[in-house]
Specification:
Blueprint lengths: L7 E3 L5 E3 L8 E6 L8 H12 L5 E6 L10 H12 L18 H10 L9 E4 L5 E5 L8 H14 L1
Parallel strand pairs: 3-4
Antiparallel strand pairs: 1-2, 3-5, 5-6
Amino acid sequence: MANALDFTFDSIDGGTLSLKDFKGSPILVINTASRCGFTSQLRGMQKLHETYQDQGLVVLAVPSNDFNQELSSELEVKEFCDLNYSTTMPMTSITRIKGAQAHPFFKWAREKTGYVPRWNFNKILINGNGDIVASFGSSARPSGRKITSAIEALLNEKL
């Protein structure tokens, strides 16, 4: 795979999410879990989505149980996120993010940059061409200055 735009994910709503559909837009990919100490970051993710979606940002939530903190079904995850955080951002089905069974996107990220999610709510920022431009750990808040500055720089490149 040449870049991130070559990957697809199963959508939590059914069907497929193709990153190719987001070509030209920055994408912030975040592995999530409903029962993690960082779960409140879903609020910040939703805020990012609402603030920057009209400028082209895509915030992609990737629920994962790789750290044993996700609910057991897509329906439970979707209901939890909707009820507690009013999420409207795109979300994948429950996805493996590390190890031999990792989704091909995460294997590609590891091969390209050495990036491996160390915990829930790790973040990968991809530019509009599908290249990884930054990664952030769990403690980096989605609406914090470190991440919003990187996103705004990418959005300004589009102008």
